[in-house]
Amino acid sequence: MNDVLKGLLAIMFTMIITENYVLVKFLGICPFLGVSKKLNSAVGMSIAVIFVMVIASATTYAINSALLIPLGLEYMQTIVFILVIAALVQLVEFALKKFVPALHKTLGIYLPLITTNCAVLGVTLLNITNTNPITGQG
Questions:
Q1: Measuring CA to CA, which residue among 128, 125, 112 is closest to residue 49?
Q2: SS3 (DSSP) at 124
Q3: Which of 38, 52, 71, 102 has CA atoms 20 to 30 A from the CA of 4?
Q4: Could you give the C-alpha distances from 66 to 63, 71, 89, 104, 130, in angstroms and in order?
Q5: DSSP 60
Q6: Is residue 10's pLDDT more than 60?
Q7: CA dist list (Å): 132 to 21, 32, 58, 62, 72
Q8: Where are the domains of the chain?
Q9: What sign does the CA torsion over 51, 30, 134, 59 have?
Q10: What SS3 state is found at 96?
Q11: Residue 128 half-sphere exposure, CB side, CA atoms within 13 Å?
């Protein structure tokens, strides 16, 4: 194995086991337990949560940096972040309903619950307080 592949495997192991929000920080465990009985629904929920987390982190960082901080509205972070997350969850729900109706039906009530998933909000809040999401620097 070359060094690049070893490095990638080490990063994957670290992120999957030691830095996993569900396993280490116990964030977002309700949907994990609710849909993990079938592999298909668990994978679908995972992809939906990952999509919402990634897009919400980038969007909230941009909103915070470009609007909230310059205007002195940092106290509105939580409300604005929840609105961004809710909009993204609605986007995911519409897309699943249109393109993968069987998965939409399988996920049921757990799909809208991504909005209230503390892991998604926690990641966006940790993202703006700890590091720059692009460079990873604090």
A1: 112
A2: helix
A3: 52
A4: 5, 9, 23, 35, 17
A5: H
A6: yes
A7: 19, 28, 10, 10, 19
A8: 27-130
A9: positive
A10: helix
A11: 22
Vertex 35, ends 81 and 22: CA angle to 5°? 55
The whole-model pTM stands at 0.70
Tokens of 11: 């990063």
- In which band, very low, low, confident or very high, does the pLDDT at 26 lie, cut at 50, 70 and 90? low
Q: Which two tokens stand for residue 91?
A: 């986007």
Q: Which long-range contacts (CB under 8 A, 24 or more apart) does 59-62 make?
A: 59/84, 59/88, 60/84, 60/124, 60/127, 60/128, 61/124, 61/127, 61/128, 61/132, 61/133
Q: Which residue has the tokens 């897309």?
A: 95
Taken as a whole, the chain contains a residue count of 138
* pLDDT tops 80 at residue 100: yes
Under 8 Å CB-to-CB from 58, ≥6 apart: which residues?
A: 133
Q: Distance (Å, rounded) from C-alpha 64 to C-alpha 126?
A: 13
